[in-house]
Amino acid sequence: MPTDMMTELDLLPFLRAHECFRRDFARLRELLNSTRPLDEDEAAALAEHWAGLSAVLDHHHENEDRAIFPRVAEVFPASREAMRALEHDHVRLDDLLDQAALAMPRLRSGADRRRAAALAVQLEEIVRTHLDAEERELVPLIADCFSRDEWAGMELRTTRELEEAGLFPFLLPWIAEGMDAGLVELALDGFGEAARTAYHGEWLGAYERRRATLWPVD
User: Fold this and answer.
1) What is the dihedral of CA 40, 45, 50, 51, to 10 degrees?
2) Which of 45, 145, 215, 216 has the fewest CB atoms within 10 Å, measured from its CB?
């Protein structure tokens, strides 16, 4: 994570999500465009992983459209064209995600596998270039658009929305993958003891089994 992006606001969760989106869309592209056949268990694991990934991405973008892009465009009028371009990326991504939602659950069909593979290429490219654009055009402006309390309040609201949507079982181990164990425990402080207990008791194990099924050599 580029250190020059860090400000007095806690942007770590926001930027960590970007890292995880890049990671997963890249390996989805690699998997679906490989010659590796998927058995029934692998196809089911991929469909489940896709459901969580796409839901988290959708929520991430909803929050940007609702709360971040408008504020940045208001405070920095010169950024309005860049914010409109980022919003347009979201529209394009929504269309691709809708198409992928139809193909991902049917990956054992040759035609659907080919369709999903083509969509994975498009999704990885637009996600990667979109996140690069956000970190170039948006992130440097955020600290001058939100107070520390405003940003923390927005993070709290989005966390509650993710919990209410039932996304914690996917989100927490997904974010934690590859992180130092001590940092994971610090991060879990923000989700409450019930979530910590469920993370260690069930969610992490289920996520790791699914990950090992899909990406055994990662």
Assistant:
1) 100
2) 216
- DSSP per-residue letters across 165-191: TT-HHHHHHHHHTTS-HHHHHHHHGGG
pLDDT in tens, 178-193: 999 999 999 999 899 9
Please give the Cα distance from 158 to 29 (Å, whole number). 28
**From CA 212, how far away is CA 217, in angstroms rounded?**
8
Looking at residue 48, its amino acid is: E
pLDDT at 10 over 60: yes
Nearest to 12 by CA among 168, 180, 202: 180
Write the CA distances from 190 to 43, 51, 185, integer angstroms: 33, 24, 9
- pLDDT class for 85, splitting at 50, 70, 90? very high
Tokens found for residue 10:
């806690």
pLDDT digits (tens, 9 = 90+) for 18-76: 999 999 999 999 999 998 888 999 999 999 999 999 999 999 999 999 999 999 999 99
pTM, two decimals, is: 0.92
CA distances in angstroms from 217 to 128, 212, 213, 214, listed in the order given: 23, 8, 10, 9
